[in-house]
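FAQ: What does the model actually see?

It sees only this:
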Amino acid sequence: MRKLYVLWTTDNLITSEKMVLMYSQNCMLNHWWDEVEVVIWGASTKLASENEIIREKIKMAIHTGVKFIACKGCSDQLGVSEKLSEIGVNVVYWGQNLTYIIQDGEKIITI
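And it is asked to produce this:
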């Protein structure tokens, strides 16, 4: 299986909309990858929970098959875990998983 992880850490609106969300959705629509999992971490946590344009684009990407996971540590500290869960983002502690992905040489891009 060809799987891509996208570690999304920026709160830059243009980069988030025009790279992270556009690319991940197009990967699924065009079958460039079998699976795409976007990990919302750090500053992107707040952006994804509060910006309505980004929230709608996340929902659209989920509809095409993109999986979204948010770092629970970040989202809890920023008080946005519930908002992310409401739009279909899986909110879990993810530090150990990120470590395994890197150690196993999985395909990951960081934005």
